[in-house]
Each structure stands twice: as C-alpha cells, then as structure tokens.
Amino acid sequence: MKELNNIKIIGIDHGYGNIKTASTVTKSGVTAYETEPIFSGNILEYEGSYYRIGECQKEFVSDKVSDDDYYLLTLMAIARELNVYGIREADVHIAARLPLTWIRRQREEFRSYLLKNRDVTYRFNGKDYRIHLIGCSLYPQGYPAIVSCLKDFKGTNLLADIGNGTMNILYINNKKAVESCCWTEKFGVNQCMIAARNAVMDNFGVKIEEATIEQIFRYGSADIGKSYLDCITSAARQYVADIFATLRKYEYNPDLMRLFIVGGGGCLIRHFGQYDENRVTIVDDICATAKGYEYLAFSSLRRKG
Q1: Is 21 exposed, middle or buried (0-12, 13-18, 19+ CB in 10 A)?
Q2: 8 A C-beta contact, residue 170 and residue 143
Q3: Contact 92, 133 (CB under 8 A)
Q4: pLDDT at position 58, please?
Q5: Where are the alpha helices (DSSP H) in the chain?
Q6: How many Cα neighbours within 13 Å face the side chain of 242?
Q7: Distance of alpha carbon 230 from its chain centroid, rounded?
Q8: What region, left, alpha or beta, does residue 5 occupy, with left being phi > 0 and alpha being psi -120 to 50 degrees?
Q9: Which of the chain's termini has less CB crowding within 10 Å, N or C?
Q10: Mean pLDDT, to the nearest integer, of 269-289?
C-alpha cells in the first residue's frame, strides 16, 4: 500500500486463480451463504449476506463485470491490505488491471463496476471496515510488474505474464512497451491443471485433488506415489513446451531477445521447462504486479498534484 495526501493507494491484481495485493494473496473463489457459515476464515459480510472467499476456484470469465464476484473480491482485498497496517477506515484509490488486449474496450466498464458504491461499510473476518473510494486507475496486465526496472532493459525484450486464465505477451523495445505488439492468449495455468487432472483420470481412473496438483506446480514435487507424480510431471512439461511454442508463434527468438516471465506460470517454467537461465528471467514475487499498479498510480497521482 502507498499513501498520498491521506489517500491509501491499493494495488489489486484481479487474477482468475488468486487475488493479490502488495502484501496478500487469496484464492479467487466466492461462495455465498444466507446465514453465517459454521466455520470461520475469510468470511465477508456485505449487505446482509455472507461470503466465504477462497474455498473454491473462480471459473474463467472473459467479462469480469458479469457478476458481483470480482466486486466482492475487491472489498476483501482492500480489507486484507488495510488490516496489514491496522487500518479500518480509509479513503482508497484502487489501482488494478485488465488483460493487455482487452483493456481498451473494458476499461471504463470495469472502472464503473469497481466504483459503483463510493462509500462502503462491511465486515471481513469479524472486523468492520468503512471505505470511501476516491478513484480507480487501470493498467495493462503484466507490464507494471517490471516497470520499476525498465532502466535496466536493453534492446528487444519479450514479457510473458502467465496467469491462471490467460497469458499476456508484450514486446518491449529500448525500454518502451510496443502497443502494436501485444497479445492475449487463453492459455493460463488452469489449462495445465485440466490437462494434469485428465491425465491422472485417463491413466489411473481416479480423481486427484487440485490442491495436490497445485503443490507439484509450485514446488516441483508432492508426497504422492511416483507413478502419479510422473504422470502429472509429464503433463506439466508438455504445457511448458506449448508455452514456448506459443511464444515462438509471436516470433520469440532466445538468441535475439531476453524473455521476462511474471505470474504463476513462472513456477511451472522453472520446474518443468528447458531454457537458458542467462536469457530468461522469472519474477518470483507473485505480488509484483499489484506492487507495480501501486507504483504507477502513485506516480500519476503525484504528478497531477
């Protein structure tokens, strides 16, 4: 979180798998309850209803304003970030994102969606929050994660933001983003999750928990039988190979450019990919993009006074 003239600038990375702020990571699922849930943990109380955050997985939707889930997730993210600093009431400026090629046509609708209630009172994990939404800045996905280190970029660079739902690709030439050379592919980590789950079912006739597969993706292994681990590892290696094939479709050449990878897909590439570590940089900080949104919004608001 950054602060300017008593306004809290909170970056929120509205991912399909996780919602990230500069300090927090929460799964993106939302489950509604008419009465207070039996078990505590990530419970949002808003306008007389209860919502458990993060228990299930939010399915991919290309239009984030199609339901209230991302609005509720935004309230949760603001609460979690404010809670880090012991704050319960604040004027808030949201800094968020949309996929690279979708931001032009969805920017204003998503901004109106996030700001539809300027004054909001709610409870999260038993604590009351009162926020006044001052404004909202929206940025292209992925790029803000590396904007603070652009001074170190030389020549041609390719940025790949591999999230849960999409992969966003952007060329950066001589420290400047090339707007005409950006693409969004529906080829996120969830595609690998589906492939791994189906491979286990096809080979062994059993259903495996996504949490187990996720552990393998994140750490490269898990406490399961070798045959199952090999099956999932094979699916992950094929996915990573397909990632590089997709990048080559957009003229990625490791001898002519450096590749920067952000997002959750970086773990898969690190554990299951074949690449030149001297020419491929994987940004490990899952909150890097949310921090980047804050950095850009703070700089912009400060210039405007």
Answers
A1: buried
A2: yes
A3: yes
A4: 67
A5: 69-84, 103-114, 189-204, 210-219, 226-249, 265-272, 288-304
A6: 17
A7: 28
A8: left
A9: C
A10: 94
pLDDT in tens, 238-266: 999 999 999 999 999 999 999 999 999 99
The predicted-structure confidence for 132-151, as pLDDT tens digits, reads as follows: 999 999 998 888 888 878 88
Q: Which residues contact 99 (CB under 8 A, 6 or more apart)?
A: 140, 141, 166, 168, 184
pLDDT tens across 53-89, in order? 988 776 667 677 888 999 999 999 999 999 999 999 9
User: Residue 172: is it exposed, middle or buried by C-beta count within 10 angstroms (0-12/13-18/19+)?
Assistant: buried
**Alpha helices, DSSP H, located in 36-102:** 69-84
**Identity (one letter) of the amino acid at 181?**
C
Q: Which residue has the tokens 């004054």?
A: 119
pTM for the model stands at: 0.89
Coil, strand or helix: which one is 235?
helix
Q: Are 69 and 52 in contact (CB under 8 A)?
A: no
Which tokens sit at 189?
């980590």
